[in-house]
């Protein structure tokens, strides 16, 4: 075991306790007893027996868990690994198949990056993931966090893995007064001071489990915490007030119109541009999304085809960076618009479940009201 590095100590307001080794031992012992059972995880007992984590499963889970909860991501992970059990299988998947399988997880740029990364591993690395942070960072779509997580969990590299759970643990453990997001470099530096060559994969997962199950955002379970002895926020009497947070800026609001054009039991969809929000996905035709609402004449003028469009009201949706009011217009046609090589992809109603959630809301609203 090596002592924590001290090169960045001068930039931190908090400092590592002198008995840091006891803190580590306590948390790892707790993890050995209380580790969550997750579909992509090798248990601590199996790891001690020599079972290695599959880098493909670690990488896939980490990508899916970005901005997504464990309960929501788990069925997607199970479906993906059953359909594409190796990274080479995933690399061979048609773009449309992968995007459809991803529908409902949101943040669709992740799906495009997922496929690009899988193909790079298959084509440039013979289907074997690089085993260092540097090598992983060179893959398309792999950022600092994902590279550190895969390096630590799959390859037992002493990487500093810091997600939102770990930030919360660090902010409380050391009572960091700097508010988020400005505190991120300080919290990452503090977490890095505690990383050693001893069980780095288990250490990373132990910190994440602690934040997810004990050191929760609201109502932390301090009586059950294996590191409460060292927790400066607990000593203040108000651990739940950490991490400190700066006031959030108001989320911008936009307006648009979605068009539900039906022909028998099919609905007209369009392929969105490859870059940008929901890039490359199938969706309903829409007007532009802008800061001001469209009046009735503008909404009808922006329709994809002329027709007797009915205004069915609006649905609301919240993206990460803005919220959206989407008016829903519907019409029927008996024509063959887009039937061969045109702009529409005529999709059976029962196939609409693969749409991104904002369009699924609009389609379901139209189905209820028509």
What's the short story on this structure?
Helices cover 40% and strands 11% of the residues. By secondary structure, it is α+β, with helices and mostly antiparallel strands.
Structural class: alpha+beta
Strand content: 5-15%
Q: How many distinct helices?
A: 15
Sequence stretches where pLDDT stays below 50 over 5 or more residues: 1-13
The radius of gyration is 24 Å
Provide the succession of SSEs.
HHHHHHHHHHHHHEEEHEEEH
List the helices and strands and how they pair.
Blueprint (H helix, E strand, L loop, with lengths): L19 H15 L9 H5 L6 H11 L4 H14 L3 H5 L3 H8 L6 H16 L8 H5 L6 H12 L8 H10 L10 H10 L6 H14 L18 H5 L16 E11 L2 E6 L10 E2 L12 H6 L8 E9 L4 E10 L12 E4 L8 H13 L1
Parallel strand pairs: 1-5
Antiparallel strand pairs: 1-2, 2-3, 2-6, 4-5
Walk me through what this model shows.
It is a single chain. With 370 residues, this protein is of the alpha+beta class. It contains 15 helices and six strands. The protein has helices spanning 20-34, 44-48, 55-65, 70-83, 87-91, 95-102, 109-124, 133-137, 144-155, 164-173, 184-193, 200-213, 232-236, 296-301, 357-369; strands at 253-263, 266-271, 282-283, 310-318, 323-332, 345-348. Strands 1, 2, 3, 4, 5 and 6 form a six-stranded mixed sheet that branches. A hairpin with a 4-residue loop joins strand 4 (310-318) and strand 5. Helix 1 (20-34) crosses helix 12 and helix 3 runs antiparallel to helix 9. The longest helix is centred in the first third of the chain and has 16 residues, at 109-124. The protein starts with 19 loop residues before the first helix and ends with a helix. The relative contact order is 0.11.
């Amino acid at each position: 075991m090596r002592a924590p590095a001290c090169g960045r100590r001068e930039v931190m307001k908090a400092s590592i306790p002198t008995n840091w080794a006891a803190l580590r031992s306590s948390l790892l012992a707790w993890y050995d007893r209380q580790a969550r059972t997750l579909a992509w995880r090798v248990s601590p007992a199996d790891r001690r027996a020599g079972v290695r984590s599959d880098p493909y499963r670690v990488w896939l889970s980490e990508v899916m868990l970005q901005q997504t909860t464990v309960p929501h991501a788990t069925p997607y992970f199970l479906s993906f690994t059953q359909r594409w059990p190796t990274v080479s299988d995933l690399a061979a998947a048609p773009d449309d198949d992968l995007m459809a399988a991803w529908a409902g997880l949101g943040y669709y740029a992740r799906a495009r990056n997922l496929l690009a990364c899988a193909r790079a591993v298959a084509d440039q690395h013979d289907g074997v993931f690089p085993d260092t942070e540097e090598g992983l960072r060179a893959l398309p779509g792999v950022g600092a966090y994902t590279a550190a997580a895969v390096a630590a969990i799959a390859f037992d590299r002493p990487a500093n893995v810091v997600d939102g759970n770990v930030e919360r643990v660090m902010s409380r453990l050391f009572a960091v007064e700097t508010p988020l997001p400005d505190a991120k470099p300080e919290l990452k530096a503090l977490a890095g001071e505690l990383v050693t060559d001893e069980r780095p994969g288990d250490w990373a997962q132990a910190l994440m489990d602690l934040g997810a199950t004990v050191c929760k955002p609201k109502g932390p379970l301090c009586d059950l915490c294996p590191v409460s002895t060292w927790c400066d926020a607990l000593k203040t009497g108000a651990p739940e007030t950490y991490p400190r947070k700066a006031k959030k800026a108001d989320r911008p609001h936009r307006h648009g119109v979605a068009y539900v054009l039906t022909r028998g039991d099919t609905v007209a969809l369009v392929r969105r541009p490859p870059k940008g929000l929901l890039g490359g996905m199938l969706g309903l035709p829409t007007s532009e999304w802008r800061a001001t609402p469209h009046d009735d004449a503008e909404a009808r003028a922006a329709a994809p085809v002329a027709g007797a469009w009915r205004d069915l009201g609006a649905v609301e949706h919240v993206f990460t960076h803005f919220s959206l009011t989407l008016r829903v217009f519907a019409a029927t046609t008996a024509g063959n618009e887009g039937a061969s090589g045109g702009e529409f992809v005529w999709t059976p109603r029962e196939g609409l479940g693969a749409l991104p959630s904002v369009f699924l809301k609009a389609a379901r609203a139209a189905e209820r009201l028509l």
